[in-house]
Amino acid sequence: MNMLHKIKAAAAGISQELIAIRRHLHSNPELSFQEYNTVSYVKMQLEGMGITQIKSLATTGLEVLIEGRNPNKKVVALRADMDALPIIEANDVPYKSKNVGVMHACGHDAHTTCLLGVAKILQGERESFEGTVKLIFQPGEEKLPGGATLMIAEGVLENPTVNAILGQHVMPLIPVGKVGFRSGLYMASTDELYVTIKGKGGHGAMPHLCIDPVVVMAQMISALQTLVSRQSNPIIPSVLSFGKVIANGATNVIPNEVYMEGTFRTLDEKWRSKAHELMLRTAHSVAEGFGATVDFEIRKGYPFLHNNPALTARSKAAALNYMGEENIVDLDIWMAAEDFAYYSQEADACFYRLGTRNESKGIVSGVHTPTFDIDEEALEIGAGLMAYLAITELEAVG
To answer: Do 366 and 40 meet the contact criterion of CB atoms below 8 Å apart?
Structure first.
């Protein structure tokens, strides 16, 4: 039996175990950088497999080594994130979150489960491959500065040095049984915007005696939007959105200040830096024109995510071999952000998508929503495929 069939058989053999693990994780979600019980559970699972090379990093992260023959030949890293989101789950399922207000609404429970599945498969095949597979169980993907930065700072890509790194993420837009790849630029950088406009409040019937921060806010948002529509190169994807605006006045009360929160995303670092300067200049100019002041804070977040073309081509070819050509999807640029991008800045990286959608089962909700769920058939596929991609990359010349 060749390695492909061995891995498929091993993944099928642990499919029910994977579902049980995922349901435990889903029922017991923890927020970013608070994954204490989660990481203890993961460590217990790994130790139960006989894995001994387990190292704690970034408080709630783990670095795990599975060494085959000739372990120094090549090192391939596989990453899974473990944190959940501050969302109240609306699903009526037996494995519904027990931690009210916290939910695995982005599939990190599935990512962790699949990587545990990879661990079990590869631990049983250590004599069948050369090189080392480094498993990265990472905290805090959902919250700046991103757990990846902490893991990298503490040496997760070193000792032994990682030659290539793969990341797998669920995708509810892709049917279960399919996976998606994209070479080159894939996901956007992300910056958080926090804005306070200060004016002078008063009676709504006497605006001439006020400096209305609501009017300033309206003009400021319109002016800022022109940065994307008129000052950026049209071929560079950019998004500027304000999703939170608080003007605590009333029907007849002009407030003293308005507070806003937003996001800026793009796929070009030079334009990103220039846009930051333009946003600050524009905001202060608009405020000054009305006699108001503004505090405009830009919290720089994750960089853009770049998939190494050669590694992605090899991974896509291996996935085609494992799953069949009809189950491979070509991905478009995705303007969401991922702290896996930090790994892609340090090593050859490939971040791909695992289909989890099943319309016949009603599993259609997007990530970061209260009704998000996955078709659990994806777990066997995700674990087996990731193990196969790791082995294939260890054998690759590139």
So the answer is: no
Which residue among 300, 323, 342 closes a domain?
300
What pTM, to 2 d.p., does this model score? 0.93
Instruction: List the domain range (segments joined by +) for residue 110.
Output: 3-187+303-395
Can you tell me the distance from the alpha carbon of 349 to that of 393, in angstroms, rounded to the nearest whole number? 11
pLDDT at site 18: 98
Amino acid at 76: V
Residues 313 and 273 in one domain: no
pLDDT beyond 70 at 115: yes
All residues at 6 or more sequence positions from 125 whose CB lies less than 8 Å from its CB, including other chains = 3, 6, 7, 10, 68, 391
Answer for the pair 63, 143: CB distance below 8 angstroms, yes or no. Answer: no
Query: Which positions are annotated as active-site residues?
Result: 83, 141
Say whether both 169 and 85 belong to one domain. Answer: yes
> What residues contact 105, with CB distance under 8 A and at least 6 apart?
84, 85, 87, 89, 367, 368, 369, 370, 372
What does the alpha-carbon distance between residue 36 and residue 210 come to, in Å, rounded to a whole number? 51
CA–CA dist 20, 14 (Å, integer): 10
pLDDT digits (tens, 9 = 90+) for 257-308: 999 999 999 999 999 999 999 999 999 999 999 999 999 999 999 999 999 9
Residue 16 pLDDT > 70: yes
The SS3 assignment for 210 reads coil
Checking if the pLDDT of 26 tops 80, the result is: yes
CB 368, CB 176: distance < 8 Å: no
- Read off the CATH number of the domain in which 274 is found: 3.30.70.360
Report d(CA 66, CA 167) in Å as an integer: 17
Task: Taking the CA atoms of 7, 181, 24 and 95 in sequence, report the sign of the dihedral they define.
Answer: negative
State pLDDT tens for residues 306-341: 999 999 999 999 999 999 999 999 999 999 999 999
Q: How many domains does the chain have?
A: 2
Give the separation between CA 191 and CA 237, rounded to whole angstroms: 14
Please answer whether residues 348 and 166 qualify as being in contact, where contact means their C-beta atoms are separated by less than 8 angstroms: no
Instruction: List Cβ neighbours of 329 (8 Å cut-off, separation of 6 or more).
Output: 174, 178, 179, 180, 181, 353, 355
Q: What is the pLDDT of residue 398?
A: 59
**Predicted local distance difference test score (pLDDT) of residue 222:** 97
Report the C-alpha gap between 253 and 255 in whole angstroms: 6
